[in-house]
């Protein structure tokens, strides 16, 4: 069963090997937002104040706080974080997708008219005019017992109906 787990006040994020479970991500700091490819960008994660990494079976989010790193993992295998301060099992609730900004240019890069540069999605395969992020949905229980719906990113892909184009 899938699980969400969180660890706070970490002195460091996990080592490079741990990041192999992910394929893509974004890192953000005051002067840069970067599209990350894993495992090759694993050594860069601590350069960013916060970020997200995602792949077929898990998603991690990290943020640097005054007391150390805060790390959250959603993991379909249910293993969770080794030093988790909190964890909860999740009930799977389906799959959806979110369209990304941009349309393909002549050389395959993605452009958005409001942004004066090619979008940094990297070398995403396919020739679809648009890209989407596939998201897996879950239910969890809130602090007062209320059901909460959440999602994690799975992969970047052609939008539904445009696969194979």
SSE topology sketch:
Layout (H helix, E strand, L loop, with lengths): L2 E8 L13 E6 L2 E6 L12 E5 L3 E8 L2 E8 L10 E4 L1 E9 L3 E2 L5 E2 L20 E10 L5 E11 L8
Antiparallel strand pairs: 1-6, 1-7, 2-3, 2-4, 4-5, 5-6, 8-11, 9-10, 11-12
Report how far apart the termini are.
Answer: 34 Å
Share of helical residues: under 10%
**What kind of sheet is the major sheet?**
7 strands, antiparallel
Percent in strands: over 45%
* Radius of gyration, whole Å: 17 Å
Neighbour order of strands in the largest sheet: 3-2-4-5-6-1-7
What is the overall number of helices?
Answer: 0
Which of globular, elongated, flat, extended, rod-shaped describes the shape? globular
Broad structural category: mainly beta
Query: Whole-number average pLDDT?
Result: 88
Number of strands: 12
Low-confidence stretches: none
> Can you write the helix and strand succession as a string?
EEEEEEEEEEEE
Domain module count: 2
């Amino acid at each position: 069963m899938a699980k969400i787990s969180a660890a706070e006040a970490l002195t460091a994020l996990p080592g490079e090997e741990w990041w192999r479970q992910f394929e893509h991500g974004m890192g953000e700091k005051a002067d840069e937002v970067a599209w990350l490819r894993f495992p090759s960008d694993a050594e860069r994660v601590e350069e960013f104040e916060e970020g997200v990494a995602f792949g077929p079976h898990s998603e991690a989010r990290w943020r640097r706080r005054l007391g150390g790193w805060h790390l959250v993992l959603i993991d379909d295998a249910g293993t969770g974080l080794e030093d988790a301060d909190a964890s909860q099992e999740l009930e799977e609730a389906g799959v959806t997708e979110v369209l990304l900004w941009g349309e393909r240019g002549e050389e395959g890069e993605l452009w958005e008219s409001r942004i004066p540069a090619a979008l940094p999605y990297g070398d995403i395969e396919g020739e679809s005019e648009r890209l989407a992020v596939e998201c897996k949905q879950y239910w969890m229980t809130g602090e007062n017992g209320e059901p909460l719906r959440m999602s994690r990113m799975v992969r970047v892909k052609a939008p539904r109906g445009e696969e194979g184009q």
